[in-house]
UniProtKB/TrEMBL annotation:
Organism lineage: Bacteria, Bacillati, Actinomycetota, Actinomycetes, Micrococcales
Positions of the Amidohydrolase domain: 46-546
Stored CDD domains: YtcJ_like
Name listed for the protein in its UniProt record: Amidohydrolase
Record InterPro entries: Amidohydro_3, Metal-dep_hydrolase_composite, Metal_Hydrolase, YtcJ-like
């Protein structure tokens, strides 16, 4: 019998403690069937020579907005790498708007006021809109800026009488006119009037995002929030869009998708301990799917953004205090609503994923998750805390004690660290973007980027986890540095475990999915200062080369 493919003459870092390295990997029907010389090369139809290259399991981004990465290729690129000043941002919008079809919306994403000096205003956008409605998404995705035409179409002529919803903010001038910035839940005031994406639109974005991340060595992602465009997601048809992309063969990465919490509803009159159950029709819940597309945890945003200073903190942001203002951020939902829905989803069998950036939001989330487990213990629930951007030692100890999984983003350190340091102040910055403290507490963490908030490149993320320097070159809490081995393990074993998939991915071992990447240099041996220069040369998914070459 002839098997599919043998990849040989490499150094495979397997992440399997029983067999840490291997020289070759044999593949059949998408899974690993041999290591080293267990099967001769003559037993395989194809043999690929790695010529001594290092290889690791495919990178698994545990918090990655794949559809938004694809969408970003279709909109104005406003990331700091593309525009570094307000003049450059306005020029980019001007150029895009001038070429846009009449009556269409001009959408852009990725701007960061920490680089620009301030948020754009509606009036500034009016001057370069060429009559189009304009909406620009902040790189945190927790706020955006609309021009006057966009407010008009949303039912607020001349930006007047704009309501402020619970969990949101709409800054206005002395005369009561909205300035253009819409924060948190207030984004929906305008976003609800942008033409809705169809399932085909979503599929196109998923395909574009998939192609982009495959080039970076990402073979699996978890999309944190679908189906609720007023909160997170492309449309109400997100899952159909992912499935359509998969049907067309355009979903090249393995995707675990998180329905947003508001897509769940009460399950009739079902209750447990006086608490209503929340779920989806037909009893769908976490875990349904196949090797390429499955339903993961249910996701909710409990608070806002650190760099946008809307994450819910125990005390005022230092930067706002210095300006004579009091601001602790906010919860996006009343705590009672979060409690009812999250406990209800737990009771219905869902894995939970709670976005909690601020330390006050973290306490709220942990209180709710602890109460849910007390009401109905589920020993291996693996409920998640997304980001955990600010946490004290005692909070980290509680996370470990409750068996929760924090999901940090190392690349935040480099791209957002300077803004975070200004927002938090020197003393509280020590509690920000912690990673080693989780490992020291015995927590098996995943790795993620939250792309397109920051760059999706896993190599750059690993460099940030190891070096912990900001874009300005400043060290950022250097005592939280981790090793390359720890970072790679997080990106593979940790990310698989975070969605109950460690039996299929994360290690290069018998029976595992044959997902791995080859590298231009050995991550384990290059100096820390040179990690960022390492490139992924080939991405193998299911034993087949999906990007690059050998």
């Amino acid at each position: 019998m002839q098997f599919d493919a043998l990849y040989t003459n490499g150094t495979f870092y397997t992440q399997d403690a029983a067999r840490p390295t291997a020289g070759s990997v044999g593949v059949h029907r998408g899974r690993i069937i041999s290591l080293d010389d267990e099967l001769p090369a003559t037993n395989f139809r194809e043999v690929f020579d790695l010529r001594g290259a290092a290889a690791v399991p495919g990178f698994n981004d545990a918090h990655c907005h794949l559809s938004h990465i694809g969408e970003a290729t279709m909109q104005v690129d406003l990331r700091p790498a593309a525009v570094r000043s307000m003049a450059e941002l306005l020029a980019a919008v001007d150029t895009f708007a001038a070429a846009a079809p009449a009556g269409s919306w001009v959408l852009g994403q990725g701007y960061d006021q920490n680089y620009l000096g301030e948020h754009p205003t509606a009036e500034q956008l009016d001057a370069v809109s060429h009559g189009h409605p304009v909406y620009l998404i902040h790189n945190s995705r927790h706020m955006g800026v609309a021009n006057t035409r966009a407010f008009d179409l949303a039912g607020f002529p001349d930006r007047r009488s704009v309501p402020v919803p619970d969990g949101g903010a709409v800054p206005a001038d002395a005369g009561g006119r909205a300035l253009g910035l819409l924060q948190e839940t207030a984004r929906a005031l305008v976003m609800d009037h942008i033409p809705a994406n169809t399932a085909a639109d979503v599929a196109a974005r998923v395909a574009a995002g998939s192609n982009a991340v495959l080039q970076l060595g990402i073979t699996s992602i978890t999309e944190p929030g679908i189906g609720a465009p007023d909160h997170i997601g492309m449309s109400r048809f997100d899952l159909a869009g992912f499935q359509l992309a998969a049907d067309r063969g355009e979903l090249g990465v393995r995707a675990t998708v998180m329905p947003y919490l508001t897509t769940l509803h009460r399950i009739g009159d079902a209750q447990l301990g006086g608490h209503p159950l929340y779920g989806l029709d037909l009893g769908l819940r976490s875990g349904l799917g196949d090797d390429f597309l499955r339903i993961g945890p249910v996701k909710v945003l409990s608070d806002g953004s650190l760099i946008g200073r809307s994450a819910f903190m125990c005390c005022d942001y230092a930067a706002d205090l210095a300006a004579g203002e009091h601001n602790r951020g906010l919860l996006q939902f009343p705590e009672s609503d979060l409690r009812e829905r999250l406990i209800g989803a737990h009771l219905a069998g869902w894995q939970l994923a709670v976005h909690a950036i601020g330390d006050a939001a973290l306490d709220v989330a942990m209180d709710i998750l602890a109460d849910a487990q007390q009401l109905l213990p589920r020993p291996d629930a693996r409920h998640r805390l997304e980001h955990v951007s600010v946490a004290s030692d005692s909070q980290i100890a509680r996370i470990a004690g409750l068996g929760l999984i924090p999901v940090p983003q190392g690349r935040f350190i480099h791209e957002l660290g300077d803004g975070a340091a200004r927002a938090m102040g020197a003393e509280r910055a020590r509690l920000t973007y912690r990673v080693k403290a989780f490992l020291d507490a015995g927590i098996d963490i995943p790795a993620s980027t939250d792309a397109p908030v920051v760059d999706a490149d896993p190599i750059l993320n690993i460099a940030s986890l190891v070096n912990r320097t900001t874009a300005s070159g400043a060290e950022f809490v250097p005592e939280e540095r981790i090793t390359v081995a720890q970072a790679v393990r997080a990106y593979t074993v940790g990310s698989a475990r975070a969605v109950h998939q460690e039996k299929d991915k994360g290690t290069l071992a018998h029976g595992q999915l044959a997902d791995f990447v080859t590298l231009s240099e050995d991550l384990y041996t290059v100096p820390a200062s040179e990690i960022a220069s390492v490139k992924v040369t080939a991405t193998i998914v299911g034993g087949r080369i999906a990007a690059g070459s050998l």
